[in-house]
Each structure stands twice: as structure tokens, then as C-alpha cells.
Amino acid sequence: MYIPKAFKETDREKLINFIEQNSFGVLFSQINDAPFATHLPFVVEQDCLVSHFAKANPHWQLLDGQQVLVVFHGPHAYISPTWYKEENTVPTWNYTAVHVIGKVKIVKDIERLQEILEKTTHFNEQFEPNPWKGNFDVKAINGMMNGIVGVEVLIETIEGKWKMNQHHPVQRQQNAIEGLMQSPQIYAKQVANLMKKNIENF
């Protein structure tokens, strides 16, 4: 990922937290010399990302031992130059993203696969007032397990990009924040809050 120095985020804890908050990622690789991508819910497990594929998805079949790219997107929004209230300014897009490069291990072991599913469910249910628990009998569980395969991505490199207008003067950033707070874009207020945090930490 192209990351100018002003936008580079290297704090590993912050990057891991970002993945946990934006855990639905995209796994990219090559299949038969062509790019292929699968959207997956990931859970961070120490230095590893874990998830699972539908067995019918051909993507996993050639992945074992391969190096892949997993992309996680955060809030993003269009920035209008009119918000800056200055001449000779141009439009841009503010966004956050984390890229992980790692080596894949395909998981077919039933016990490990069940562990991955339990961790994924617990991670996503933990803030529910009445967390769902899959109380299935052994036959039902085995039937479902036959339809999926697990995936572990050992993290080799992790990089983050926080493009939040931090290379602009503070007043211009604050003007953009005001514009975002009035914008109908779906993630505009989230981007505005991230920009505020950047200014506070500057």
C-alpha cells in the first residue's frame, strides 16, 4: 500500500484494535494466474488472523502455504474543497485502512475448526444483551462442519494508513471537520471524529 510518511500508522496495538473494530476483511490471492478475493469475518488470535470459508468456494483449495493480502477498511469520506474556505484547494478522500500480508494454513481438523467458529461467534456476540449460543447436537454440528474449512493467516507484515488531512494547517482541518459534521455521507461523522482525535494528539 502506498503510504506517505504523514499518513503512516505503525503502532501495532492500534492496528490490531482497528482490525477488531473493522473485522470484516477481504482476502486477496491469485487463482490460476488471476486475482481472486473473498470477503470474510476475521478474529485476531495473537499473531494470526482466523476465519472460515464455505467449502463450495474454490478460493481456499489452492491457498495452503500461499502468501495472501488481507485488507480491512475503516471509515472514509469525500472532502470538498469548499469546506476549507480557501482558494487553490482541491477535493480529496479521507480514509483509514490496514493491510496484512501473511502465509495461509488451511484448517480441516474438526476440533480446531469448531474452536475458530466459537471464537468468531463469541467475538461478535459479546456485546449483545443475550448472546446467542449454538446449542446443536453432534450430528447437526458435524453436518455444518462438512460445509466449511478454516483458515489461519500468520501475520508477516501489518501496515496502516490514516489519511486524515493531517498534512494541512490545523484551521483547514477544523473547517473540513465542520463540513463533515454536516455531510450526509454515511461515514462522515466517524471521519470527523478521527480527525478531531488527530488534532488533539498533535
TrEMBL record:
Q: InterPro entries, alphabetically?
A: Split_barrel_FMN-bd (IPR012349), TR_PAI2-type (IPR007396)
- What protein am I looking at? Transcriptional regulator
Against Pfam families, the record matches this protein to: FMN_bind_2 (PF04299)
Superkingdom of source: Bacteria
Q: What is the lineage of its organism?
A: Bacteria, Bacillati, Bacillota, Bacilli, Bacillales
